[in-house]
From TrEMBL:
Keywords, comma-separated and alphabetical: Signal
Molecular functions per Gene Ontology: phosphoric diester hydrolase activity
Record's signal peptide: 1-29
Top-level taxon of origin: Eukaryota
GO BP term, example: lipid metabolic process
InterPro entries: PI-PLC_domain (IPR051057), PLC-like_Pdiesterase_TIM-brl (IPR017946)
Protein name per UniProt: PI-PLC X domain-containing protein 1
Protein species of origin: Cacopsylla melanoneura
Length: 362
């Protein structure tokens, strides 16, 4: 888990399946109950790891300032109110896999915080009173909800949760991941649902499939050379989220794998793409003159909350009023946690100039 208000001079976009922000709430039974947590942190995560024909395994994490061995974490089903997993803690911090697979449903969630299927409780014993609890829930407006804290922070002073190859999404099926899906599909949720769960930066790879005409309908969302869906599908989801919230969102247009370099004279794919974005999302686009040093309150004051970072120097300069400087992407290509940690330590100690992102998948 990570903090949305970490005081670091960078922007970091985490390459995760998706993240559920869960708020710890104290219950009335906590008063005069032992052990008492001064600052309890318990949460539910969904693991994107695919193993043994299972994915989306629920994991419980915890960090307790006042810790008594034998304290219990209990995963509860929100519908039945019954315990589905119990774990006796032996350390003040840690995580544990429940081996319970969360079933992703083809659902579009609302724009108000919504409780999901599980919550976790911290108890002194399995039958004891609840010390604190944490709901599994959506977070469509976490920036607005925390405006009193976040408004004076700049984008560069925040961790911004994001996803890698964000549009390459698919639903899990009964046969598990197929060969092509395993290497092409990186997300289980649509762009819209990712935003509703709390993601605020999306990494988009755009292709253009016409060498002889200027036609925005030929724009596609790709993962490498593999087509995923018409780009209009993605734009419509972005527009819907922007219309219903005041959240500050970053579009990282990072690669243009097909059709942007090989085309007939008179065909200008970058111009087609930018003009299409202006036509569809122009009312939300934040002026690049704000720069990455702008505080969140400045975006809200202008009522312009969409950042478009564009990784093509010539095009970015041509449309420098609305296209922000590109985001440097760092990729560890790590196969184990220790290699990832070593890579991350190096990058945090010697970060690139300007905004940057890093992939934390192994």
């Amino acid at each position: 888990m990570f903090s949305a208000i970490a005081n670091l001079k960078l922007s970091i976009f985490l390459s995760l399946l998706f993240i559920l922000f869960c708020n710890v709430s104290e219950t009335s039974s906590e008063v005069n109950t032992k052990p008492k947590c001064k600052k309890p942190f318990i949460d539910i995560l969904i693991s994107p790891v695919f193993a043994n024909n299972e994915t989306n395994i629920l994991e419980l994490i915890w960090s307790l300032e006042d810790f008594v061995p034998g304290t219990m974490l209990i995963l509860m089903n929100s519908k039945t109110k019954k315990a589905e997993y119990e774990y006796k803690l032996t350390n003040p911090t840690g995580f544990v896999s429940t081996n319970i697979s969360y079933k992703i449903t083809n659902t579009t969630y609302g724009f108000k915080k919504q409780a999901l299927d599980y919550y976790v409780e911290l108890k002194a014993s399995a039958s004891g009173p609840v010390i604190c609890s944490s709901n599994m829930e959506t977070n469509p407006t976490w920036m607005q909800d925390n405006a009193a804290v976040l408004s004076k922070l700049s984008i560069r002073e925040m961790f911004i949760p994001g996803t890698h190859d964000s549009g390459a999404s698919t639903e899990e099926d009964d046969n598990g991941e197929q060969r092509v899906q395993k290497y092409v599909m990186t997300q289980d949720e649509t762009i819209l649902n990712q935003f509703i769960f709390g993601i605020r930066s999306v990494d988009l790879r755009i292709a253009y499939y016409s060498v002889k005409s200027n036609d925005s309908s030929k724009l596609w969302l790709n993962h490498g050379v593999q087509r995923i869906c018409p780009f209009s599908t993605i734009v419509n989801q972005i527009k819907k989220f922007m219309e219903n919230t005041k959240e500050i969102v970053t579009l990282d247009l990072h690669q243009f794998p097909v059709g942007f370099s090989l085309h007939s004279p008179g065909v200008h794919p970058h111009d087609i793409l930018v003009e299409y974005l202006k036509a569809e999302l122009g009312q939300f686009i934040a002026p690049a003159s704000l720069t990455w040093n702008a505080k969140l309150e400045e975006f809200w004051k202008l009522n312009k909350t969409l950042i478009i970072a564009y990784n093509d120097e010539k095009t970015q300069q041509k449309y420098s009023d609305i296209l922000w400087l590109p985001i440097t992407q760092k990729w560890a290509n790590a196969q184990d946690i220790q290699t990832m940690k070593k890579y991350m330590d190096h990058e945090f100690n010697q970060p690139p100039a300007g905004p940057w992102s890093t992939d934390v998948s192994v």
